[in-house]
Amino acid sequence: MSEKPVYRRVLLKASGEALMGGQGFGIDVSVADRIASDIAEARAMGVDVGVVVGGGNIFRGVAVASKGGDRVTGDHMGMLATVINSLALRTSLHKIDVDAVVLSAIAMPALCESFSQRKATAYLDAGRVVLFAGGTGNPFFTTDTAAALRAAEIGAGALFKATQVDGVYSADPKKDANAVRYDRITHDEVLAQGLAIMDTAAIALARENRIPIIVYSIQEAGGLGEILRGGGKRTVVSDA
Ligand SMILES: Nc1ncnc2c1ncn2[C@@H]1O[C@H](COP(=O)(O)OP(=O)(O)O)[C@@H](O)[C@H]1O
Ligand SMILES: O=c1ccn([C@@H]2O[C@H](COP(=O)(O)OP(=O)(O)O)[C@@H](O)[C@H]2O)c(=O)[nH]1
Fold first, then answer.
1. Quick one: residue 221, left, alpha or beta (phi over 0 = left, psi -120 to 50 = alpha)?
2. Using one digit for the tens of pLDDT, what is the confidence trace for 176-196?
3. Which InterPro entries match (predicted)?
């Protein structure tokens, strides 16, 4: 394995559910601390890190809609949940002296700065970790799509999807024991086979911008660093 990182700038997507750890709701601080230490390792390798955090551990807009409520309001609540998670992750990063800033797609100046592409790029260039909160800022989208969008905006070499499974399988491995894991697969194949590792809008956006997606497990510490060194268990979704 080489010491030179495979990517110089990455966008890390961590789901809200991952932050929940073994709990049924909310934030397990030990998980936030572990994600922070993985980010610190990447920074120590000289990799610029942008992060999009999900909100599913606290609120999802579809939960409101499925009970007959207003989807848009539900999505606003979901986006607020991502701000809560981003503030938690910033706290974990600051605890270990990693400089990190939260930029929100929805203005809330008392809590954090507002997102702009220029600001994000300038902070990353300066070596700060940028936590992108508030998803895309629009209802009917997901934080996976926000991750693909921010990855394109910051010129990330890859989008890292840190998730509960260790790659993309021929079927959902939680439901099909015979599912086979792919080492590499193309964006087109993921879309054509309907592999539901991410929503289709996110995969299509990554494909259009030629951004590889690296799917790996968030369950074990050190996974991000290992992949950045050229090893690790993961699936690379790439057209190259
Ligand atoms: N073909 C597939 N390969 C891998 N995972 C899949 C596939 N189809 C569905 N999944 C499911 O997608 C989940 C990842 O999506 P998501 O819910 O957004 O992330 P998280 O599990 O990190 O919250 C996995 O935990 C897995 O159960
Ligand atoms: O651009 C976005 C991103 C997120 N959300 C809302 O925020 C919730 C939490 O995000 P997501 O479900 O993507 O989180 P994750 O599954 O990664 O925890 C979603 O369900 C949506 O309600 C939204 O409306 N627009």
1. beta
2. 999 999 999 999 999 999 999
3. AceGlu_kinase-like_sf, Asp/Glu/Uridylate_kinase, Uridylate_kinase, Uridylate_kinase_bac
